[in-house]
Amino acid sequence: MVPIALTIAGSDSGGGAGIQADLKAFSALGVFGASVVTAVTAQNTRAVTMVEAVTPAMIAAQMEAVFDDLKVRAVKLGMLGGPEAIETVATGLEGRSLPVVLDPVMVAKSGDRLLPTEALDALRGQLLPHATLLTPNLPEAADLLGCAPAQDEAEMTRQARALRAMGAQAVLMKGGHAAGPECVDLLVTEAGVTRLRAPRIDTRNTHGTGCTLSAAIAAGLAQGMALEAAVTRAHGYLIGAIAAADRLKVGIGHGPVHHFHQVWAND
Fold this sequence. Notes:
single chain, UDP-N-acetylmuramoyl-L-alanine:D-glutamate ligase, 6-stranded mixed β-sheet, 3-stranded antiparallel β-sheet, 8 helices, 9 strands
């Protein structure tokens, strides 16, 4: 039976991030993807021009429909919108023994804010305790903690441990917003710290990187991989997707990464 992963996130009309990126990553890695749409966005590679939230009742109905019929093995959480949507998702996850990858989507690549500041308390209090893995970038981690973004790996580690103390079982601190020729991510678990490094790739086509990474990790967990193995594979997959992004030539702004770089032979 094919493993199934569920993404609960917002839709990206440009196809590069959100639900669309998640389903592409699931498919590229051999996992069947189901989805619960929490918001509809009008966006492209340049900007987000409109966001419309899905009602909490509809979010709950989608979750119930999926869980009632599909044998979901992992859940990825992305853009959730306001406090009511977060509460609805948290309630829908209660009592389900499933690995949950929480990507705290707050700001789009264009700079448009996707999570209202008033929803931060709900995210901290209601969703972090469900998170098998939290995957913040440096500004997102700082927002969740109410502090300045980490400037070095020691501070990244301290912030990850603080986020674990707030309820997340493990934290992957993503270093894409840092400077330097290398991009370093830190996986911080109860067992210790794993350092994942890669050369910084010179491309503007990085739309959907966070969504893609968290979805790829959820795919690995759905396939029964241990957390560190799932994170390591997803990290390598994303590096390949970024390296191949310029081949797509989608849009004139921040284009998407190439989710199918391992599959499409003549793109």
